[in-house]
Structures are given as structure tokens and as C-alpha cells.
Amino acid sequence: MNQGFTIPKFQLPGFVARLGHKLPQWPHAVALTTALNAAVKMKLLPEDSLAAFDGKTFLVQVLDTGGQAAFTYRGGFFRPLWNPVGAPDLAFRANLSAFLQVASRQEDPDTLFFNRELSIEGDTELGLIVKNMLDAIELPQLPKFPLSLPFGQR
């Protein structure tokens, strides 16, 4: 899928998650909803699919960092949930490396799901809409940068 830098499978040490659970979680939700709203504004996300999200709640948990982002989609915007109550309509759980592999298109969510590296729980139809939306996104090509700069090379 991805022809650039390969993200290896990894799991952060357990103390990272133990520490991460103790930190405030709202920054994760604010960052994720800001990015999702930018994608909406750039028309990267199909409007017809977004209509199915209205009033739904979502949770993204990064297991090995202890971080999570709870949010909803309402009134045409993704909005952070400060104090989520009850089970979300759709939840995604995985280690950081799995989410990075999906984001970079190195792996597709189906492969990670069937390899038990990504957990998807909740409304099956909503999950299918999200998966199809991810598959349909055409990311702009970013310039390729060298992984190391040639400082001090002669």
C-alpha cells in the first residue's frame, strides 16, 4: 500500500500506558477532532457518509500509550466529548503502531482487524461506513524528505 517509509510493528513499554492513563485525555480528543474537521473542510471526507455520523459517539483508544479520544459528530462538526457517558456507538482500539500503519496506508484496517491488532466494537453498519470512508480518501502526495540530513558530510 504505502511506498514510502515502512512503520515497523512495535509496542511501547507498559509504563507508558500506566502513565498515559493518569494524564488528561481531552487533548487527544481536541487534536483528533481538529484534524477531522480540517479533513471535512478540505472535502476529503464524503458528505453523504458524514450524514450517517450525526449524533453518534466514537472512541479511539491507543492501548500502549494509555491515551484515548472520545468525540461525536453533530451539526456538521466533529466535537470532543469531555466526559463521555455510556458505551460509544463505535470504538477503535489498537497499539500506536497499528494506527500509524493505517494512517500511512501501510496496512488496511481489515488486515489489522483479522490479525487481532485492531479491535472495532459497536455499530457494525457505522464501522463499515468508516472503513469505506477511509478507503475512499485520496491523500495529497507529500514531498519525500530524506530520513537524515547530510550534516557534516563531505
Automatic annotation (TrEMBL):
InterPro entries tied to this protein: SCP2_sterol-bd_dom, SCP2_sterol-bd_dom_sf, UbiT
Stretches assigned to the SCP2 domain: 47-135
Coiled coil: none
One matching Pfam family: SCP2
Record's keyword annotation contains Signal: no
Pathway annotation from the record: Cofactor biosynthesis; ubiquinone biosynthesis
Keywords associated with the record: Ubiquinone biosynthesis
Source domain of life: Bacteria
GO terms under biological process: ubiquinone biosynthetic process
HAMAP family to which the protein is assigned, alphabetical: UbiT (MF_02231)
Function: Required for O(2)-independent ubiquinone (coenzyme Q) biosynthesis. Likely functions as an accessory factor.
Family: Belongs to the UbiT family.
Protein name as it appears in the record: Ubiquinone biosynthesis accessory factor UbiT
Organism of this sequence: Candidatus Proximibacter danicus
Gene name per UniProt: ubiT
